[in-house]
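INFO batch 0412 | record 1 of 1 | parsing
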Amino acid sequence: QVQVAESGGGLVQAGGSLTLSCTVSGPRFRFDDYAMGWFRQAPEKKREGVSCISWNSLSRHYADSVKGRFTISRDNAENIMTLQMNNLKPDDTAMYYCAAGIGVPSVLCGGQYPMDYWGKGILVSVSS
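INFO prediction complete | emitting tokens
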């Protein structure tokens, strides 16, 4: 069974930074076969793709709302993906979910194609 685990969330003041990490494990799961992504959902809002990265890190997609502030990266040797979030805003407050899927990052983040595996989510709260 594939397990996806997020870490690094918490409470931060506006303008601050957080780094989210995601690890994926499971029998017969090859981390470098999958694109990875971060999605978020705030109360009473639709889930949105925040950032997605291709299996080889050559393609990265960011939502317009986070461009220039967030950076996605991955280490295939360690089966880990991270999201560095800088200059956080109260509007960034949400549950953040890590997911793995097959496809182009922009398409996966756009929700046009489903992700295969999801984490349980981690809360990021940004106070004003």
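INFO post-check: The longest strand covers residues 18-25.
INFO record closed
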